[in-house]
Q: What sequence folds into this?
């Protein structure tokens, strides 16, 4: 069976950067399982898997536009520190979800100053080329329930194990395998 719209797909993957450093991998965890065509993964990842079948093993590289986008300086915000008085452990690297005009967004604390806090709304991998090694383990028809759940569950926006891992689930992981989010804390 080939990977196509509304197929349940299970893969093992390794994600690395331009220098070859591994950023994320499914080894040692559950393989990544997703419903193809429901926008649960970064666009380029799904496109690269389209038409593949079980036992296919291949590599591909995604440019930022097909991954987590270009780094956007307009997503850097500096706010008065007093606005964070309810956060007990305010520190660099802390991540939390905020509601914005386009829905939920994960913010990363970049700097905690004496009077101000600098936040970054970019995905941690924005602006990076993403190098994937993927092995397709299984492809099957998705059930109606799986499709409905996938269409309604976009994750909280951060990964549990590495820098949508939500972000539509997929921080450094490419998809929904990391749903659950550990409260969007630092990784």
A:
């Amino acid at each position: 069976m080939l990977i196509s719209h509304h197929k349940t797909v299970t893969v093992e993957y390794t994600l690395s950067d331009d220098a070859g450093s591994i950023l994320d991998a499914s080894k040692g965890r559950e393989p990544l399982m997703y419903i193809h065509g429901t926008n649960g993964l970064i666009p380029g990842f799904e496109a690269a898997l389209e038409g593949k079948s079980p036992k296919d093993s291949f590599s591909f590289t995604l440019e930022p536009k097909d991954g987590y986008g270009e780094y956007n300086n307009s997503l850097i915000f500096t706010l008065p520190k007093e606005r964070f008085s309810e956060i007990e452990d305010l520190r660099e690297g802390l991540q939390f979800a905020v509601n914005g005009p386009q829905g939920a967004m994960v913010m990363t604390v970049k700097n905690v100053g004496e009077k101000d806090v600098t936040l970054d709304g970019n995905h941690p991998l924005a602006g990076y080329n993403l190098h994937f090694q993927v092995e397709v383990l299984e492809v099957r028809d998705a059930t109606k329930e799986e499709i409905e759940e996938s269409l309604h569950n976009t994750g909280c926006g951060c990964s549990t194990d590495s820098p949508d891992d939500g972000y539509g689930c997929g921080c450094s992981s490419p998809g929904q395998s990391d749903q659950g989010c550990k409260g969007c804390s630092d990784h």
Summary: The chain has two domains: 7-69+127-153, 73-120.
